[in-house]
Design brief:
The protein has a seven-stranded mixed beta sheet with strand order 1-2-3-4-5-6-9. By secondary structure, the chain is an alpha/beta fold. The chain has one domain: Ribonuclease Z/Hydroxyacylglutathione hydrolase-like (Metallo-beta-lactamase, Chain A). It has five helices and 15 strands. The termini are far apart. The longest helix has 16 residues. Strand 10 and strand 11 form a beta hairpin.
C-alpha cells in the first residue's frame, strides 16, 4: 500500500460522455495518458456493442451496470492491457485471431512507471519524458493497492477477421484488419455513417509501433489503406475524435517518417 500514499479516491472512476444518442464515450481520468484508453459504448436497436474495455482497474459491471442490461457484445481492438483489461467481465468477447491468445493468457500488467518514453513512442531510445512512478493518479476505491494490479484472462468467444459484420439491428459495422500496432489490430467501420473506430491503429497522438507484435512495414500499409477509406469521423483508442482531413494528416506524417513516402488521397 506504500505506492498508494498521497493518492485520493476518484469518484466517479469512469467519466461518461454522450457523443450522440447512440454513442457514449467512457474514460478513466485517473490514469496517466499512456494507459488512459477510450471505451466506446454503442447502443443499437437489437443489441449493444462495447469497443474495448479499459484497464480493468475498476469494475465496469459494478460501477456502470446499465451497460450490461442487454448482454452487450465486447469487441477488443487489440490485446494490450489498457484495451482488454476489463474483458473478463463480458459474456461475449470478439477479437482477431492473431491477438486472441494474448487476451486469453495475458501478461500480468503493471501500473508502475519510471521508464523513459522515447520520441517514437517506444520505452527506450531518446527520452521524450520519464513516466511518473505510478501510471495512476488516484484510486478507484479506498484501500486499493496499485502494486497488486494484474490483467485477468478473458475467453475470446469468437475470432473475427477482415470483412466480418457486426449487426446491431439498425447499425452494421464491418471488421477491418489493420495490423501494425499489433498483428491482430482491428477497426470497426460503419460505411453508411462514415464512422470508423480504430483502437490504437490511429489516434491524434504518438503512435506506438516498436512493441511486441508491432510491425512497421505492416503499419505503413495500414496507414495507406486508411487514407483511402471515405470516413467522416474517426473514434480512436486514445485522445479526442477527428475527421478525415486529420486522419490523412496523421497517416501521411507516419508514412513519411517510417517509409519516406506520401499517402494517396
Amino acid at each position: 500500500m506504500e505506492m498508494a500514499q498521497g493518492l485520493q479516491v476518484i469518484q466517479p472512476w469512469f467519466a461518461v460522455n454522450e457523443i450522440d444518442h447512440r454513442t457514449i464515450l467512457l474514460a478513466e481520468p485517473g490514469l496517466h495518458r499512456l494507459i488512459a484508453a477510450n471505451i466506446w459504448w454503442i447502443r443499437g436497436r437489437d443489441r449493444d456493442l462495447v469497443i474495448d474495455s479499459g484497464n480493468g482497474i475498476a469494475s465496469l459491471r459494478r460501477l456502470l451496470p446499465e451497460i450490461f442490461e442487454r448482454d452487450p457484445l465486447l469487441v477488443v481492438t487489440h490485446f494490450h492491457a489498457d484495451h482488454a483489461g476489463g474483458a473478463h467481465e463480458f459474456g461475449e468477447v470478439w477479437a482477431h485471431g492473431a491477438d486472441a491468445g494474448r487476451i486469453a493468457a495475458p501478461r500480468p500488467g503493471s501500473l508502475v512507471g519510471g521508464r523513459p518514453l522515447a520520441t517514437d513512442g517506444s520505452l527506450d531510445g531518446t527520452a521524450l519524458a520519464v513516466l511518473p512512478p505510478l501510471l495512476i493518479n488516484g484510486l478507484p476505491h479506498a484501500g486499493y493497492d496499485p502494486g497488486g494490479y494484474a490483467v485477468r484472462p478473458a475467453a475470446v468467444t469468437r475470432e473475427v477477421s477482415e470483412g466480418d459484420v457486426i449487426d446491431l439491428g439498425d447499425l452494421r459495422f464491418t471488421v477491418l484488419h489493420l495490423p501494425g500496432h499489433t498483428a491482430g489490430s482491428i477497426g470497426l467501420y460503419d460505411e453508411h455513417a462514415g464512422t470508423l473506430f480504430t483502437g490504437d491503429v490511429i489516434y491524434d497522438g504518438i503512435l506506438l509501433d516498436t512493441g511486441e507484435s508491432s510491425d512497421i512495414e505492416s503499419y505503413v500499409q495500414t496507414m495507406r489503406r486508411l487514407t483511402e477509406i471515405p470516413v467522416s469521423i474517426v473514434h480512436g483508442g486514445h485522445k479526442p475524435s477527428f475527421d478525415r482531413a486529420r486522419l490523412i494528416e496523421i497517416a501521411s506524417e507516419y508514412i513519411t517518417r517510417r517509409a519516406g513516402g506520401t499517402a494517396r488521397s
